[in-house]
Amino acid sequence: MVLKIEKDHQRFRQIVKGKIRGDLRKFLSRGELIGKEGKHLVSIPVPGIDLPHFRYGDNNDQGVGQGEAEPGQTVGDDGQGMGPGGTEPGRHLLEVDISLDELADILGEELQLPRIEPKGRHNITSVRERYSSIRQSGPESLRHFKRTFRRALRRLIMSGAWDPNNPKVVFERSDKLYRSWKTVRKPQSNAVIVYMMDVSGSMGHEQKELVRLEAFWIDAWLRRNYEGIESRYIVHDVNAKEVDRETFFHLREDGGTKISSAFRVCQEMIGKHYAPDEWNIYLFHFSDGDNSSEADSRECCQILKDHLLPISNQFGYCQVASAYGSGHFINVLREHLGGEENMVSTRVNTKDDIYDSIKAFFSKGR
Prior knowledge:
Layout: H1 2-22, H2 24-28, H3 32-35, E1 41-47, E2 93-99, H4 100-110, E3 125-135, H5 145-159, E4 178-187, E5 190-198, H6 205-225, E6 228-236, E7 240-243, H7 245-250, H8 259-273, E8 280-287, H9 294-308, E9 314-320, H10 329-337, E10 343-348, H11 354-362
Parallel strand pairs: 5-6, 5-8, 8-9, 9-10
Antiparallel strand pairs: 1-2, 3-4, 6-7
Helix pairs in contact: 4-6, 8-9, 9-10
C-alpha cells in the first residue's frame, strides 16, 4: 500500500513538473515566487491540477444534514441574498512546494543549459565524518548487528555449541563489532557572484524589479552547479560601495552615473578575498546603459579587459529598459569586447525577456 502511494505521489510530482516546464517563461517573470521562497523550497501556484482526493459514490438515502430545507436556503437568516448564484466553474490554483534544486533542474532542461565545469584547483575543502570502518569497541548505538551476529554464529559453530534444534545466538563481549568513523576532507567547488547595479535616478522601481527577478534565477542556477556560493552586492551612481542584499534591491539615489567606479570596487574586492585559482568568479552588472561620458565607458572596457575578464568565469551585462537612459553602454561593450568569450551582454526590456537573457548567460556552460 505504501509503495502504491509513493508511486502515485511521484506521478503527481511529474505532472506538476510538466506544468511548470510548459509555463516556464511565465514563471520566470513572476515576482511573487521570490516572496514565497523558503530556506529550501519555493511555493508555485499551478493552475489546472486537481489535488488528489477520495471520490465517493452517490448516496440517495436520508442522513446527516438532510431535512425539509431547500438547496440554497440561508441558515438562521430570512434575509435575501445579493443575487443568484454563479453558473461558471471556478479557476482552481494549487500551490505546490518545489525545491530550488528541482526548479533549477527544470530551468536547465527547458533552456538546454549545460552543467558548468568548475575551474580552479579546488583547494577549498569541507570536512565530513564518514563511517567507513569497523572496530571492537564503541557505544551500543553504533554496534554493527549483522557483523556481530555472524561473528557470534561462527564462534558457536566452531566450538560445537551450535544446536540446530534450538537455534539461539547469545552475544559475548568478544563478538561485538562497532562502526568507526574517520574525518574526510572533500574538495568543494566554490563560487562567488558579484552583482553590480546602477542606482542613479533613471533606475526606478520597474527596473529594479527586472534586476531582482534575473538575479533570483541566476542564483538558482549557479547554486545547483556549486556546493558553496557567496553573493556580494555593489551599487553605484558616480561613486560605488558594497551593500547588503536588501539595500541592493531597494536603494534609489539621484545623480549621475559612473560605471567604472563599480568595476574598480569589484576589482579590489576580488583581489582581497577571492583568489582566482581557488574561486569560480561570476560578475553581473545591471544598468540602463546611461554612463557619464564616452571616456568612462572606454575606461570600463579597459578595466574589464585587463583585470576582470582574465580572472572571471563570466562577466554578464544586463541592460534594462528605461525611459531616461541613453542605452549606449551595451553598444560600447559589444564594440570593444565583443570578441571576448566570457563576456555576454543582453537586453531586458520586459519580464518576458528574462527567459532569453538567462539562456544567453549560461548557454556555454562557463
